[in-house]
Task: inverse folding
């Protein structure tokens, strides 16, 4: 566990990835309102860079982005054992091959405009039985030094 | 005997003997055509309007029109009509240009055989139908991609609108309500900008067409272009041939600006942007007389960059609405708008790109035809 962590609260950590700044801002703010610990990336490459420094419990990523799209991001995450436990939810405003996304290991797909109960949906994905990405599952320290690499 | 209804062929030929020969050749075929013959362009155009024939066999040199102008006049009044052009023995260059303008085939006057004539007309009709169907299919495909792109963009905007409206609802104090409202307004503005762009693509604004010289166009565009280029991009203009063209100068500015913005974005590290205009002369428009052969066919406006070039795999898609490699920075509408404007000018656009070397967009615009030239004896 982290040294000097404050008392534990249930505060799942979500990385929101979208190249549309406004969409990203709105989603991030909504999720913060619901009590998620949220940080943001503007495309798949940016997300991968941030993931090397801190692991979230869930990545909520747009599908169509320049440089590295959501599909590739999901593939990268699921292929590496140290990130495979991170839940991936892809969002898109267009048609999508859901079977292919499942094959990649994507945990859920949401369509834009996003459902009102996005927070509940993400919690459901997080609580679904699957090996936790680290000790303690998705229950993570509150405002403590949260953005640290997961314990090996 | 033919299976379908007989082909209705309009013959526009002032040489009575040649007209008779062609008439017999077409009517005596295994699938006889219903042939109607006229001897000048004016009557020919009238007949096309009134009887809507399946094909036209057109002599380029008629009492009231000569050379490629004859073909242009026919295609302008009936763009979907298959045309087989009749030329003299020495005019293979004109024949080639006629095909480029949209004729389906050509026949050499001195080398006519009934079988060849029948086949040329029959194939012209078939080929025209096939290409029209192909174009239709391509249009449908593009419409599908367009619908997909529009849905995509609007779903993003709607995500932001619905999401920020929810934030307004749930706001616990004035400050967070205020900032949520701000997001809502920004989202609405994005939606408005998107629908404006779509409209600019969809509507056909009335053309304020005027005959303008390419030198004047490039001169007035220069300021506009300089305003959007960073200092890391060097602007080189020239050579600029002087060609009179008939177009809407405002739309030409828009076209030039979109091409320049595209070139600029292709050179994030800087580079050279060149704008040039080349006059294309008719190779050997012998039938059209001395004056016409000196007038250029069209002006080719080139915008070149020294950027990274276009991946050959996507080159054919760059003019598609909503196709963009710029992610959120690009709307995917710039080159689509360019293609639309070029189409309105009656021109054509080509892209020539080499990865690692740069990209050139070449827009050809037909030269303005002097009043009366189309119909010198009228």
Result:
């Amino acid at each position: 566990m982290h040294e000097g962590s404050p008392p534990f609260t249930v505060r799942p950590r979500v990385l929101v990835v979208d190249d549309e700044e406004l969409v990203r801002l709105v989603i991030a703010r909504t999720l913060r309102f619901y009590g998620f610990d949220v940080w943001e990336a503007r495309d798949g490459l940016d997300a991968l860079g941030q993931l090397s420094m801190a692991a979230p419990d869930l990545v909520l990523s747009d599908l169509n982005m320049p440089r590295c799209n959501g599909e590739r991001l999901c593939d990268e995450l699921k292929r590496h054992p140290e990130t495979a436990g991170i839940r991936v939810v892809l969002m898109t405003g267009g048609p999508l091959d859901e079977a292919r996304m499942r094959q990649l290991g994507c945990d859920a797909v949401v369509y834009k405009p996003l459902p009102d109960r996005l927070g509940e949906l993400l919690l459901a994905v997080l609580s679904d039985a699957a090996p936790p990405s680290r000790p303690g599952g998705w229950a993570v320290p509150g405002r403590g030094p949260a953005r640290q690499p997961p314990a090996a | 005997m033919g299976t379908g209804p007989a082909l209705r062929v309009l013959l526009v030929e002032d040489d009575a003997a040649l007209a008779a020969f062609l008439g017999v050749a077409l009517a005596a075929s295994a699938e006889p055509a219903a042939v109607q013959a006229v001897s000048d362009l004016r009557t020919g155009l009238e007949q096309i309007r009134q009887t809507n024939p399946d094909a036209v066999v057109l002599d380029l040199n008629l009492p009231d029109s000569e050379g490629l102008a004859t073909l242009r006049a026919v295609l302008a009044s009936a763009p979907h009509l298959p045309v087989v052009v009749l030329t003299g023995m020495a005019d293979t260059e004109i024949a080639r240009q006629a095909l480029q303008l949209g004729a389906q085939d050509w026949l050499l006057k001195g080398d006519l055989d009934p079988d060849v004539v029948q086949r040329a007309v029959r194939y012209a009709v078939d080929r025209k139908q096939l290409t029209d169907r192909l174009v239709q299919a391509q249009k449908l495909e593009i419409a599908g991609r367009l619908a997909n792109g529009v849905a995509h963009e609007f779903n993003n905007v709607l995500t932001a609108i619905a999401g920020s409206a929810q934030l307004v609802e749930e706001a616990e104090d004035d400050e967070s309500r205020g900032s949520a409202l701000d997001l809502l307004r920004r989202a609405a503005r994005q939606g408005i900008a998107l629908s404006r762009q779509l409209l600019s693509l969809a509507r056909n604004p009335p053309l304020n067409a005027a005959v303008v010289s390419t030198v004047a166009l490039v001169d007035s565009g220069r300021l506009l272009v300089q305003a959007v280029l960073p200092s890391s991009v060097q602007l080189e203009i020239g050579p600029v041939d002087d060609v009179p063209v008939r177009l809407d100068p405002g739309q030409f500015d828009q076209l030039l600006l979109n091409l320049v913005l595209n070139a600029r974005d292709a050179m994030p590290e800087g580079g050279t942007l060149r704008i040039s205009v080349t006059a294309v002369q008719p190779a050997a428009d012998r039938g059209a007389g001395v004056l016409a052969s000196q007038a250029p066919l069209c002006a080719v406006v080139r915008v070149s960059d020294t950027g990274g070039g276009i991946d050959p795999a996507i080159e054919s898609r760059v003019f598609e609405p909503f196709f963009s490699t710029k992610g959120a920075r690009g709307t995917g509408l710039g080159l689509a708008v360019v293609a639309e404007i070029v189409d309105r000018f009656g021109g054509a656009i080509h892209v020539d790109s080499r990865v690692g070397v740069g990209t050139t967009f070449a827009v050809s615009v037909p030269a303005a035809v002097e009043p009366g030239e189309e119909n010198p004896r009228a």
Notes: Chain A touches chain B through 26 residues (CB under 8 Å).
